[in-house]
Amino acid sequence: MKPVAIITAAGRGIGAACARELARSGYAVALISTSERAEVLAGELHGIGMRGDVTRPEDLQALVQLTLDRWGRVDAVVNNTGHPAKGDLLAVADDEWHQGLDLLLLSVVRMARVVTPVMAGQKSGAIVNVSSLAAVEPDARFPVSSVVRAGLGAFTKLYADRYAKAGIRMNTVLPGFVDNYEVDAATLGSIPLGRAATVAEVAQTVRFLLSAEAGAITGQQIRVDGGLGRSV
Q1: DSSP assigned state of 203
Q2: Are 186 and 194 in contact (CB under 8 A)?
Q3: Potential cystine with 193: which of 16, 49, 130, 226 (Cβ 3.0-4.6 Å)?
Q4: Where are the domains of the chain?
């Protein structure tokens, strides 16, 4: 029986790369995105797809139920999202902060509420959250992402501690600059590898963290940043 993975925001970029990597590695995949792209990709990968929004709890519930109806289990979840508002630190409006909280943190909390009982019943499961290097090295260009994703790192550790004995692991990957967006020359020059990470490299790291080979890794934030991060 194939392992089953749910991937959110899977229509393009890192989410789509994760879907392709996991399908290539033998997973059955269930995908969601706000456009039809997840449905199209799911058809290509012989999985299931739906249109929905990770900020809507009812859409997450529907995706998990769709997955259970099709395969009867959930072995892996990749919590991927879009990007929150940018702006000067004090110019970000209250509603933009709330939107960032919904998008980057509460989407993960709400997904965990739905899939944890399923995984606990199976006595196994792995969750990977796609975050950002800004979670551990705040960047004034990305204030909402920096602040809220730091909270996601704390949630990851608390969840990992709480559910390890149930056989469930949770980790977070922290990409730096990735090739699905244009990166200027000055930024590229600041990366020790001299280039952006590829979406495939991020997806391969996600696949490893979901695998049995990473069975002793939980509660961690793994950087995929070409050496950009400076803190030790």
Answers
A1: H
A2: no
A3: 226
A4: 4-224
Rg (CA), the chain: 17
What's at 175, amino acid-wise? P
Q: Which CATH code is given to the segment(s) 4-224? A: 3.40.50.720
Asked whether residue 152 carries a pLDDT value surpassing 90, the answer given is: yes
Distance, in Å, from the CA atom of 219 to the CA atom of 59, rounded to the nearest integer, reads 26
Beta bridge partners of 4: 28
CA dist., res. 127 & res. 171, Å (int) = 6
Cβ density class 199-229: b for 16+ within 10 Å, e for less = bebbbbbbbbbbeeebeeebbbbbbbbbebe
The token pair that represents 202 in the structure block: 């991020």
Q: Is the pLDDT reported for residue 232 higher than 90?
A: no
Q: What is the mean pLDDT of the chain?
A: 97
Q: How far apart are CA 79 and CA 112, in angstroms?
A: 10
Residue 150 has pLDDT above 90, yes or no: yes
How far is residue 86's CA from residue 92's CA, in Å, rounded to a whole number? 7
Q: And the tokens for 36?
A: 């039809």
Q: Angle at the Cα of 48 (from 217 to 128), degrees rounded to 5?
A: 15
DSSP letter (8 states) at residue 46: T
CA pair distance 38, 130, nearest whole angstrom: 17
Tokens of 209: 């963290």
Q: What's the pLDDT score for residue 46?
A: 97
